[in-house]
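Next up, sample data.

:::
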Amino acid sequence: MQENIPPPLSDPQDKDMARLEMYADWLDSRFRIPGTNWRFGLDALLGLIPYVGDIAGFIFAFFLMRIMVRRGAGPIIMIRMFFNHVLDALVGTIPLLGDLFDFSFKANRRNLRLLQSYYAETPNPPGAGWSFALLVFLFIGWMFFLLYAAFKILTTVLQWLF
């Protein structure tokens, strides 16, 4: 749970990455518990309200995807980032455990680090067209799965009650 915030990895002149660093800071590590090195952000606080923290995470994911589409990115990096948000959202649905997980996992900061290291290691990234299409397909599949799971849980609970 303790995390020291690393210095920014991107060029200060890079407005996109500076904006992403600011968002990741606010969402994952803006506040510190006095007397400790434990940091948390709005994502963890908003996560205390069901679904609100998850929505904030997906808004940040949208900004990441927008930059990747503009600059180019391979499918593997997009899938890794997608699964960070999926894991954050899945565990976040478990009462109390999900809230504690949000304080430590920091999906937004993880994804920012992944993106920064990807661009540092890949000076000429491939176009993101097919990668983005794959990500959209995964996202739609994930939404259908969530709807199906919610329907099954609801029908099971209603059968159990009545």
